[in-house]
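Researcher: I'm preparing a figure for a lab meeting and need a structural model of a single chain. I don't have an experimental structure, so a prediction will have to do for now. The sequence is pasted below. Please return the structure as tokens so I can convert it later.
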Amino acid sequence: MAIREIRVIPDPILRTPCDEITTITPAIRRLVQDLLDTVDDPGRAGLSANQIGVGLRAFSYNIEGKVGYILNPVIEDKQGEQYGDEGCLSVPGLWYKTRRADYARVRGIDLDGKTVVLEGKGIMGRMLQHETDHLDGHIYLDRLEKSERRAAMRQLRGER
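Model: Understood. Here is the structure written out token by token.
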């Protein structure tokens, strides 16, 4: 359908928890197609609906050549730990080491209302947590240590 413009901080929609999708409508089908079209670009691992200005619980992903989506995702399980570089399309140009669980599993639905479970370790686990955070109104900078978060915010404002 369309490649959508990415919202960047401080856009307030990125800090607003997204609403659950209660009915699969033609508009929801278009949203999913737009999420898939927009995430299908090299270097993009995931994209939440609020990053394209829609306050609904949906995200798409593009991990190791697998492109897909999930509606109403909820994290069911997290295990282990990883600490590595993380970036975000809504926080352009910044990469910070971020602590996440190594493994994550989310449960949601597809466009037919059928249960979908996504799980993975490493980059897949990181993406599942990152995108679910977006849908809860959080960005990855919220997970940084206080001094790193301050440095990141200064960098975003163009300060030294």
